[in-house]
Amino acid sequence: DLYAGNDNPGLTLLNDVLMTYCMYNFDLGYVQGLSDLLSPILYVIQNEVEAFWCFSGFMALVHENFEESQEAMKRQLVQLSQLMRVLDPVFCDFLDSKDSGSLCFVFRW
Question: Full-prediction pTM beyond 0.85?
Fold first, then answer.
């Protein structure tokens, strides 16, 4: 219910924190997925200032995942693929047979 309805204060809070972060980290700006990362923080904290600084600290740890080159995400997908190949080679073969071996479908996770 934090974001239900058009005039919901939760949506305004989400927008305000994201816009502030975009100005704070102008080089990155807004990229797809930031709202997905901020939402659980806002749900727990529900304070604009504290949520902003918590989100900023988190983004400092994971910012490489949002760089335009996507090198960090590509590296993580390769690592996940290698792990899956060891743990469940049959499933990996199935994914390969469906042209899904690159694991692009887990990119958002």
Answer: no
| Residue in 72, 94, 99 with CA at minimum distance from that of residue 84 | 94
Tokens representing residue 94 in the block: 């199935």
- Give the tens place of pLDDT for each residue, 37-76: 999 999 999 899 999 999 999 999 988 888 778 888 889 8
CA distances from 43 to 11, 24, 101 (A): 11, 22, 35
* Residue 55 burial (CB count, 10 A): 21
User: Measuring CA to CA, which residue among 74, 67, 81 is closest to residue 33?
Assistant: 67
Tokens at 46, concatenated: 């529900």
Note the residue count of the chain: 109
Q: And the tokens for 66? A: 């949002």
